[in-house]
Amino acid sequence: MLSEEQGIDEHLTIGELSRLTGITTHTLRVWEKRYGAPISVRLPSGHRRYGKKEVLRLRAIAKALESGYRASKVVTGTLEELHKLLGLTHPDDEDAIDDLLPDKVIREWLDYVKDYDNEKLSNSFHDLWIQIGPLNFVNNYVGKFIKNIELGWQVGEISIAQEHFASEHISSFLSGKWRRLNQYNDGHTAILTTLPNDGCQLGLIMCAVVTTLYGFKVVFLGPNTPCEDIVSSVNSCNSNLVCVSITTCIDLATSESHLFQLRGLLNEDVQMVIGGAGSPNMIPGVKKYNNFMEFSNWLDKLKK
Fold first, then answer.
1. Whole-angstrom Cα distance, residue 133 to residue 127?
2. Domains of the chain
3. What is the pTM of this model?
4. Are residues 185 and 215 in contact, defined by beta-carbon separation less than 8 angstroms?
5. What are the DSSP calls for 122-177, one per residue?
6. 20 closest CA partner among 214, 248, 226
7. Measured between alpha carbons, how far is 230 from 29 in angstroms, rounded to an integer?
8. What are 5-18's pLDDT values in tens digits?
């Protein structure tokens, strides 16, 4: 049995392990019960914890499953065995690490977009998601990719058709990921929406990925939702959390007006969070987060 101090410093909760690997807590519990892995230890308090070294091993397992291997064949494998199975280099190999640097990866993604290469772009999204984990993928890659697409369009290197191609692919990929995670979540309900007249939803989809990683049951209203309908959904779902993605598709004065209206219609115990390039500052009763790392840290504290 571990001391509480050892458990905090060297081990992860099942929720943390899920967020770092993209494997649902439900699946991890099933594997532990059925195959005896991943192996957990208990703190004096009785809580289970998992070694940090399991993160790389579980990411390799996820990749093996996506490659067609059965769980019964790979769940108990060591990291070295899994890498040999998949033909991967050692995770500490300098060349392998260099291949995952955001700037290099995004340059490759831009090339795939320019070539309209569906297969390479989708496979690269998938492989990176497994290698670095969901939070890192959203926080350090997706936003930068979209900014590079927008910049490319502004200087004439990316056409409108290519911009649509890129946005559709990343939106579809992330939507599939958060919906899969959401199937097994049984925590508090979070309502995700944009404001009226804001038709852009990629930021909201990214928010859905992060929110589901922390065990919340997401109700995704999507773009351009009237304030009255947002409130109705909150009441119907008995939710105490509303997350609003705000883009520059609507002007600052309009977004402020909608936020004041929405905050006034919601019960005081409902927490309201905003984020995105079009988010105004200093709206009473509304929390603003400038990036998904800040938001994920807040969700982690909220869940505890």
1. 10
2. 11-86 (1.10.1660.10), 100-176 (1.10.1240.10), 182-303 (3.40.50.280)
3. 0.77
4. yes
5. HHHHHHHHHHH-HHHHIIIIIHHHHHHHHHHHHTTSS-HHHHHHHHHHHHHHHHHH
6. 214
7. 35
8. 444 457 888 888 88
